[in-house]
Design a protein that fits this description.
The complex is a heterodimer of chains A (556) and B (334). With 556 residues, chain A is α+β, with helices and mostly antiparallel strands. Chain A is built from 16 helices and 22 strands. The longest helix of chain A has 30 residues. Chain A starts with a helix and ends with a strand. Chain B is mostly helical. Chain B is built from 15 helices and no strands. In chain B, helix 8 packs across helix 10, helix 10 crosses helix 12 and helix 12 packs antiparallel against helix 15. Classes of the chains: A alpha+beta (556), B mainly alpha (334). At the A-B interface, helix 1, strand 10, helix 7 and helix 13 of A face helix 3, helix 4, helix 6, helix 8 and helix 10 of B.
Chain lengths: 556, 334
C-alpha cells in the first residue's frame, strides 16, 4: 500500500510538471516574440528545393532562383526586361564578321571568397563547360552548353582584363544568351578547393554570399558587404522550401514569411482582399500549345543539328494522313474555343496566345488575325479535305502541370469535346513525363499538348527551337509538330545571323505569317508569372525571364 | 534471447537482398529516364548517351545491380543522379527529421489513443464511449492533407499560437550536430531553439498521429473489453479488489499485446508514409525525398531510401516482438 502511494505521488508530480511544461510551450505562442532583430531578413517561400548551386550545371528554376543572388555574368538583363546591359564586363566590341566579341572586364571586383575577378576566372568558368579535357569538366553535365552555346568555339585571354569569345558562325542571340545563369562567373579558387562538391559551396561576385543549405528546408544567403555596386539593403535572404501552395499562403497570412511564388489561382481573390498582401503579375516568357504532327522528320545522323542532303525526310512513327493536310490543321484551329479554355481552366493566370512566342518579344507579329472559334467553318474545311464524317485520333496529354499548361488533363478533356463537336473523335493518352518528352520528341504522337518556357529572352529561343525544320530531328525534336517549311527555316536562320534588330524582327514576323497559315500548332496560352509579397516588401521587380533578383529589394 | 536477437538481425540480410533486388528491377522497368529528367526538354541524343555511360546506365541491369551491391558492401550508396550529392548524405540529412516527427506523432497517438480506448471500454455504451469512438472513426476517415491545412488555419492563422510548417523559426541561431533538432538544442543548451522546435512539431505530430491514434483507441477498446470479460478479472473482482485496481493493475497490461502490435506496425508505416504530412507542413523528411526521387527516376537515391526503410522496418518489428516479452512474461523466444 505504502509503495503504491509513493508511486502514485511520483506519477502525479511528473504529470503536473509535464502538463505545466506543455501548457507553457503551447501558449508561449501567444506571448512569444522573436528576439528583437535589427537585421533585415527576408524569407521567401519557394515551391521546391534547388538541385545544385552551380549555375552552369542546372536547368531548374529553383536552383537559379538561389544562384542569381550569388553569381553574375559578363552581361545581365536590364531590370524587368530582356534587354542586355554591362555587368562584370564594362563594354564589348563585335568584329565586323560577327564572329569575335572582345569584352573589357570590370576591375577591382572580388569574389565573395576574396579571389580577384579577372580574365582567368572568365576563362575557367567557360572552359570547364566546353573543353572535355579541362580537369573540372568531369564535375558537371553542363546541360545548357551544347544547346545554347555550341556556337562558341573558344574563349581566349587577351590580358588580365580582356577576353575574346570566338564564334564558329555569327549568332545574333549570343549576347542575350550570355546573360543567362549558365555562363555566370564562378570563383576558380573555390572550385579548386571543393572540386566535385563545389555545387554545395557556391562563390560568385554577386550581392549575396552563401551561408547555409539545409536540404528540403532552406537556403540562406547574406549581404556581401564588398559587392562592387555597394552592399544590398537586405541583410539576409532565406529561401524556404514550402511545396504546398496552400501552406505557403497560410504562412504568408500568418506573417511567417515575406513572399512566395506560384500562388494557387483559386486563392487570388483571397489575396487581393487582404490589405496586407500585394500580388505581382507579369506575362511570362512561355507558350502552351497543341502540336499537330505534320508527318515527316529526319534522322540527324551526324548530330550537327541541321538537316543535310544525305538526311532524307522520313515518316514519323505518329504519321497520320489527315494531319498532313493544311485544311485539317486549320479546321482544328477553328474548332477549339481558346478564350473559354483560358478563362475557365487557366483561371485568369494566362492570356490567349495567337503566335508562337509571347507578345513582348522582339519580332512578335501583332498584325496576325487569330483563328476564331468557328465550328461550322471547321466542318467545312474538313469536308473540303475529304473528311466530311470526321475521323478518330489520339490526343497525347501531358501528365504534369506547367505554368503554360495549367491543368493538362482538364484542358485535354475540353479539347476532346470541342473536336468531337466537329466529328473528330479523340482518345486521350497519358504517360509519365520523361517518357512523354522522349516519345513526343521521337514523333510517336499524332497530336499532343506541350509548351515551352524561354531560356534567354531571345526570339530565336522560341522560333528556331520550336518551329525550325532543322528541329524536326526524330528522337530529339524541338519542333514536335514536325513542321518542315523550308522557307520558314531560311528566314529563321537568316534572323539568327542578322545583328540589326529591325531587320531581324522583320524576318521573325514574316516567319510567323507562314506558320499561322500552315497551322501546325494551336497556340493556347501565354501564362503569367505571379508572386505574392507582404506590403512592406519594396522594390521587387518581375523579370520576363522569370528570374528573381533581391538586390534592389528592401523591407520597410 | 541473445541468440534470438542475433538470428533476427541476421535475417536483415536476405530481406535486404530481396527488397533491393525487387526495387532495382521495378524502378528500372518503370518507364522514364533520369538522364532526360536531368537534362531537360532540349538535350541532344549525344549528351544523353554520354551521361548514361558516365552513370553506368548503359550496362545490363544485373551488372548494374552487382556493381551497386559491391559499392554498398564498401559503405558507398553512390551519388544522386540529379543532385550529385552522396545518397547517404541526402538520406542522413532528412532521416532524423522523419524519425522525430514519427516519434512525436506516436507519443501523441499512444497517449490519447490508449486513454480513450480504456475509458471507452470501461464505460462501454456510455456517452463518453460513443463520443470517443465517434472521434476515432472521424480520425481514421479524415484526409491528412485536409486535417493539416485546418490545423494550420486554426492554430497558425486565426489563433496565431503555433507556426505554419518548417522545423524551427529560421531567425533563431541553431547549431546542427546530430540532425535530431530536439537533441541538438538540448546538447547546445539552446532554450529558444528547443521551444521553437517543439512548437513546430506539435501540429504535424497531431496531423500524422491522428490516424494511428484512432486505430490504437479502437484496438485498445476491443482488447480491453475482451480482457474484462475473462475469468481472472472476475476472480479479482470477487476477491474484493477495487475496480480501479482491477483495471490499472491487471486488465491494461494484459490488453496491451495487440495494442503493441498495432503500434509497431503503425510506427513503420509512419516513417515511410509521412509524405502528405511532410508536404503540408514543409517538413524536410525522407518521405518527400523518396517520392521526389521516384518521380525523377533517380535510381541510386530510390534504392538507397528503400534500403533504409527495409532496415528500419525489420528493426521496428524486432523491437515490437521483444516488447511482448516484457508485457507478457508467458512469451519466450529461447
Amino acid at each position: 500500500m505504502m509503495r503504491d502511494n509513493i508511486i502514485n505521488k511520483k506519477a502525479s508530480v511528473i504529470a503536473i510538471v509535464l502538463s505545466a511544461m506543455f501548457i507553457v510551450l503551447f501558449f508561449s505562442g501567444c506571448t512569444e516574440t522573436t528576439p528583437e532583430v535589427k537585421e533585415k531578413i527576408l524569407i521567401f517561400a519557394c515551391g521546391g528545393d534547388a538541385d545544385k548551386l552551380d549555375p552552369a550545371d542546372v536547368t531548374d528554376g529553383e536552383s537559379t532562383a538561389r544562384t542569381d543572388s550569388i553569381f553574375e555574368g559578363l552581361v545581365e538583363y536590364k531590370e524587368g526586361t530582356a534587354d542586355i546591359q554591362p555587368c562584370l564586363a564594362t563594354s564589348w566590341d563585335t568584329s565586323t564578321d560577327g564572329k569575335n566579341i572582345t569584352f573589357t572586364l570590370r576591375q577591382n571586383v572580388k569574389f565573395q571568397d576574396g579571389t580577384d575577378f579577372n580574365a582567368d576566372a572568365v576563362i575557367f568558368s567557360f572552359e570547364r563547360q566546353y573543353n572535355t579535357s579541362h580537369p573540372y569538366n568531369q564535375y558537371g553535365e553542363w546541360a545548357y552548353w551544347g544547346y545554347m552555346f555550341s556556337d562558341i568555339e573558344k574563349v581566349e585571354k587577351i590580358d588580365d582584363y580582356k577576353v575574346k569569345i570566338v564564334l564558329n558562325k555569327p549568332n545574333a542571340a549570343i549576347m542575350t544568351s550570355l546573360a543567362m545563369f549558365t555562363v555566370a562567373i564562378v570563383s576558380p579558387t573555390n572550385a579548386e578547393t571543393w572540386k566535385e562538391d563545389a555545387f554545395k559551396h557556391p562563390v560568385g561576385t554577386g550581392p549575396f554570399k552563401f551561408v547555409e543549405w539545409v536540404k528540403d528546408d532552406h537556403i540562406t544567403v547574406e549581404a556581401y558587404d564588398n559587392y562592387w555596386r555597394g552592399a544590398p539593403k537586405l541583410d539576409k535572404v532565406i529561401y524556404r522550401v514550402m511545396t504546398d501552395p496552400s501552406a505557403r499562403l497560410l504562412a504568408l497570412q500568418a506573417g511567417d514569411i515575406h513572399g512566395m511564388e506560384y500562388p494557387d489561382p483559386a486563392s487570388f481573390d483571397l489575396i487581393e482582399a487582404n490589405t496586407n498582401l500585394q500580388i505581382l503579375t507579369q506575362p511570362g516568357m512561355n507558350v502552351g500549345y497543341i502540336a499537330i504532327n505534320c508527318g515527316y522528320g529526319y534522322n540527324d545522323s551526324n548530330k550537327n543539328g541541321v538537316r543535310d542532303a544525305n538526311e532524307p525526310w522520313v515518316k514519323t512513327p505518329g504519321y497520320f494522313e489527315p494531319f498532313t493536310k493544311k485544311s485539317v490543321r486549320q479546321a482544328i484551329n477553328y474548332a477549339i474555343d481558346k478564350n473559354s479554355i483560358v478563362e475557365n481552366l487557366y483561371k485568369g493566370t494566362a492570356i490567349v496566345a495567337k503566335n508562337g512566342m509571347p507578345p513582348f518579344m522582339l519580332g512578335y507579329n501583332d498584325a496576325i488575325v487569330d483563328y476564331s472559334y468557328n465550328p461550322t467553318k471547321a466542318k467545312e474545311l474538313l469536308t473540303q479535305a475529304g473528311y466530311p464524317n470526321g475521323f478518330n485520333t489520339t490526343l497525347w496529354v501531358m501528365p504534369v502541370s506547367r505554368p503554360y499548361m495549367f491543368d493538362p488533363t482538364k484542358i485535354g478533356e475540353a479539347i476532346q469535346s470541342y473536336l468531337e463537336a466537329v466529328n473528330i473523335n479523340v482518345n486521350i493518352y497519358q504517360i509519365d513525363w520523361s517518357t512523354y518528352l522522349a516519345k513526343t520528341q521521337a514523333g510517336e504522337h499524332s497530336i499532343c499538348l506541350l509548351g515551352w518556357t524561354g531560356d534567354n529572352g531571345d526570339p530565336d529561343n522560341f522560333m528556331n527551337v520550336l518551329y525550325g525544320a532543322n528541329q524536326c530531328t526524330l528522337g530529339t525534336a524541338g519542333n514536335v509538330a514536325f513542321y518542315n517549311n523550308t522557307e520558314v527555316q531560311q528566314k529563321l536562320s537568316a534572323a539568327l545571323q542578322t545583328y540589326n534588330n529591325n531587320d531581324r524582327a522583320q524576318l521573325y514576323k514574316e516567319a510567323q505569317v507562314l506558320i499561322h497559315e500552315d497551322a501546325p500548332f494551336v497556340y493556347l496560352a501565354y501564362a503569367n508569372q505571379n508572386l505574392v509579397f507582404v506590403k512592406n516588401v519594396k522594390g521587387f521587380v518581375l523579370n520576363p525571364t522569370g528570374r528573381y533578383f533581391f538586390y534592389p529589394v528592401d523591407l520597410t | 534471447m541473445k541468440w534470438y536477437i542475433i538470428k533476427r538481425l541476421l535475417q536483415i540480410i536476405p530481406v535486404i537482398l530481396g527488397v533491393t533486388l525487387i526495387a532495382f528491377t521495378l524502378i528500372h522497368l518503370a518507364p522514364g529516364d533520369p538522364v532526360r529528367t536531368m537534362l531537360g526538354q532540349h538535350a541532344t541524343q549525344q549528351e544523353i548517351d554520354e551521361i548514361r555511360v558516365r552513370y553506368g546506365l548503359d550496362q545490363p541491369l544485373y551488372v548494374q545491380y552487382f556493381i551497386w551491391l559491391g559499392d554498398v558492401l564498401q559503405g558507398d550508396l553512390g551519388r544522386s543522379i540529379l543532385s550529385h550529392e552522396q545518397v547517404s548524405t541526402e538520406i542522413g540529412s532528412r532521416f532524423p527529421n522523419t524519425i522525430e516527427l514519427a516519434i512525436a506523432a506516436m507519443i501523441f497517438a499512444i497517449i490519447i489513443g490508449v486513454i480513450a480506448g480504456i475509458i471507452s471500454a470501461t464505460k462501454q455504451y456510455s456517452a463518453a464511449d460513443y463520443t470517443m469512438m465517434g472521434v476515432a472513426l472521424f480520425g481514421i476517415s479524415m484526409p491528412v492533407f485536409w486535417l493539416g491545412i485546418m490545423l494550420m488555419m486554426v492554430f497558425g492563422v486565426i489563433l496565431g499560437w503555433l507556426p505554419i510548417g518548417g522545423r524551427i523559426d529560421l531567425l533563431i541561431p541553431f547549431q546542427r550536430i546530430t540532425g535530431f533538432m530536439i537533441v541538438d538544442s538540448i546538447i547546445t543548451l539552446n532554450g529558444a531553439a528547443l521551444i521553437s522546435v517543439i512548437r513546430h512539431l506539435i501540429l504535424p505530430a497531431i496531423a500524422l498521429g491522428t490516424i494511428p491514434m484512432a486505430i490504437i483507441a479502437r484496438t485498445t477498446r476491443s482488447s480491453m473489453l475482451e480482457i474484462l470479460r475473462q475469468d481472472f478479472i472476475r476472480t479479482e473482482r470477487a476477491k474484493g479488489l477495487s475496480e480501479r485496481k482491477v483495471i490499472y493493475k491487471h486488465a491494461i497490461r494484459n490488453a496491451m499485446v495487440p495494442v503493441v502490435t498495432v503500434i509497431g506496425l503503425n510506427f513503420g508505416l509512419l516513417l515511410s508514409g509521412a509524405i502528405l504530412t511532410e508536404t503540408v507542413f514543409s517538413w524536410p523528411g525522407v518521405g518527400r525525398l523518396v517520392v521526389d526521387s521516384v518521380y525523377s527516376r533517380d535510381y541510386p537515391l530510390v534504392i538507397g531510401c528503400i534500403l533504409v526503410f527495409a532496415i528500419v522496418f525489420v528493426i521496428v518489428n524486432l523491437i515490437t516482438d521483444l516488447l511482448y516479452t516484457f508485457i507478457d512474461p508467458r512469451i519466450h523466444y529461447d
